[in-house]
Amino acid sequence: MYELKDWYLECEWVRQDPASGYVKARGMVNGHHKLLDGHHICTSRAVHLCLDRPKHRLIMDTRSGSCYELLFSEIDADCVGATGHAVRQMGVASDWLKEAVCMAEIKDQERLEMAERELEDEEILLLLYGVSVHRAYYKRDGVISLLEQISMGRHRCITDRENVQLRFFRNESMDIFSWSDGLRKVKMYNAGYVNVPIRGGMKPLCCKPGEMLAVGQDWFVDMGLAADPMW
Questions:
Q1: Cα gap 231→155, rounded to integer Å
Q2: For the chain, what percentages of helix, strand and coil (3-state, to nearest 5) are there?
Q3: 105, 35 in Cβ contact below 8 A?
Q4: Is-contact 3 27, C-beta < 8 A?
Q5: What is the rounded distance in angstroms from the CA atom of residue 148 to the CA atom of residue 145?
Q6: Of 100, 111, 164, 192, which is the most exposed, with the fewest CB atoms less than 10 Å away?
Q7: What's the predicted TM-score (pTM) here?
Q8: What is the pLDDT of residues 88-110, one digit of tens each?
Q9: 31: left (phi over 0), alpha (psi -120 to 50) or beta
């Protein structure tokens, strides 16, 4: 059984025919036998959806034969309306959604508290699932902010669009190639289940599951790769 993070359900229709509607899930997959942990996926059509209230989760079987665990605490609260419509389309009650959103908010608060404990000024904390960044926090003048993640073709940029940015390629490792002046440290917490190789510095590193890894300017090496301006 695979696990989805930041998941939501949605309905699709063939030729806009309401009678042809089917349900699928989107999110970051973990534990897949072919895909890297943290890979964003869209599943095939759901053929069965089971509400497991005691364990606070949904279990979804798909037409391809895959089975996914959808924990309440990992729901994408911004898409709760679409998820509610989709579960009702599958004949499943939706009265658990408020509980799920509450659990997701509690989990986000726990992540923020981790950032407050771990970060000093001018530092970034990346919460990793595989080579994907699940959340990114930045501390400046004692204030924690949630950073934006922008896809820029072959690489990604973590930024607040003003003071800081961190750019990396996401392959089978996280390859950091651009680091803002004034950024003191990057701290990475591996919230997934597999080792995450980190490259771009004086020597390759490995962030193990459940481990907090910190790298500073003395580790980073400018690889000399040109990147287009962000704006």
A1: 15
A2: 20, 45, 35
A3: no
A4: no
A5: 10
A6: 111
A7: 0.83
A8: 989 999 999 999 999 999 999 99
A9: left
